[in-house]
Amino acid sequence: MIKLDISLALFLYLFSTVIIMLILWMCIERKSGFQVFKLSFGHIWHCSICSFLYIDQSGEPLSRCPRCNSINKKEVQTL
Questions:
Q1: Which pLDDT tens digit goes with each residue over 6-51?
Q2: pLDDT at residue 4 greater than cutoff 70
């Protein structure tokens, strides 16, 4: 019979639980994959009131700032 004290048994139990959770997490992350966002400068807006940068992909010439609710007009941006 293998002699095993309580501290070693508890350590092995917790260690194996953590390893199993890590393996499950890695498998779930591999299945979900990474989302890649592709944005152009036309989707990035700068609020003229609160100076907040936000993304709007609607393509309309006017956009509402999510922070201060002001309406912003699209300006031509140069690099």
A1: 999 999 999 999 999 999 999 988 877 766 666 666 678 888 899 8
A2: yes
DSSP of 7-55: HHHHHHHHHHHHHHHHHHHHHHHHHH--------GGGEEE-TTT--EEE
Alpha-carbon Rg for the chain, nearest whole angstrom, is 26
Distance CA 52, CA 69 (A): 11
Q: Which residues, 6 or more positions from 50, have their beta carbon under 8 angstroms from its beta carbon? A: 65, 67, 68, 70
| Six token digits for residue 7 | 């501290």
pTM: 0.44
Strands 71-73 and 53-55: unpaired
The arithmetic mean of pLDDT across residues 53-70, rounded, is 87
Which pairing describes strands 44-46 and 53-55: parallel, antiparallel, or unpaired? antiparallel
